[in-house]
Write a structure and sequence with these properties.
about 350 residues; globular; 2 domains; Rossmann fold; twelve-stranded mixed sheet
Length: about 350
Amino acid sequence: MAHHGFGVSGDTDPDLPLSPEGVTYHVTCTSEHLADRIVLVGDPGRVKLVCTHLDAGSIVYEAAHREINVATGAYRGVPVTVLSTGMGTDNVEIVMNEVHILKEYDTQRRRWRTRVGETPADELDVPFDPSTVKLIRVGTCGTPNDDVPVGCLVITQYAVGMDNTCQYYVAPEVNATADVQEVLAKVRTTSLGSVQIYATKAAPAITQGLVEACAALNAKASAASPQEQQPRAQQQQQWYVGTTCSGSGFYGCQGRSVGRFHGRLTAPHLTEELGDLRFDVSEGPQRIANIEMENSALCYLSNMLGYQAGTVCVVVARRTRTGRAFASPAQTATALSNAITVALETLIAT
């Protein structure tokens, strides 16, 4: 089934834009077609790539609006939605609000659903469990970390927002924990101290699930028959767990000084500074693992809502004190396929 538009009526609420059929303004689907398990990608074209990993013939809904494409099918028989956000935390903010609407707003009764632990409004009101909503971003990134090679998968444990999107929302409770405050304090010692940054954390169950899925992926590759095996260096997918920084742009916001912007950045040595940081958190010593453009808002807003979210990214660029490197198309394609697999396996296991 395909859908390609949002139909408004005269009584549409501009603060809660829903069509009479219950279709949200940007994520053009109804609650019926949004699964509890969601793969988020930045690139709209990547939705079709993720769909090739779903069960054959399982796609039941597809829609597109601007850079936000949606497709719902199944993975190993479990309903999964694939959703593109476009680039940036600002787009993630839009998508997260509309996922929230689709999951928790009763369009027929025009009211928000009660949650587990709250008193039901009436005998027909089925309380909603927010922890059933699981979102994993699959993306690409750069790294300031000497220990992280191109082609590696980075799994987010902590998140640093170098953007301002979530400054418009009251911080979730996890942000006040000692671990998150440790990350925030250390990052503020860099030139980012002049920027109003924030920090939060990915859902621990998602982080652990991604780690276990990576280990299982490699175990499966090692157990393959001799005819199926590639050279060992190619079959083993490297991964690294660490802190993800999210910028509101690609160039100056990530320390790239281009042309006549050279010498005019507020954080000109950003990657070097981030690469030098060390955090002492309850999981053990940790470093900045990667820089991208979406994760901070995903984790922050999911924590506010009680949803479980995390991110796995393919490292395509290495920007460290010791050198620069860019992944080949073949490296990127292989690692991205592996990232999609581990994300899907995590979604159906958690």
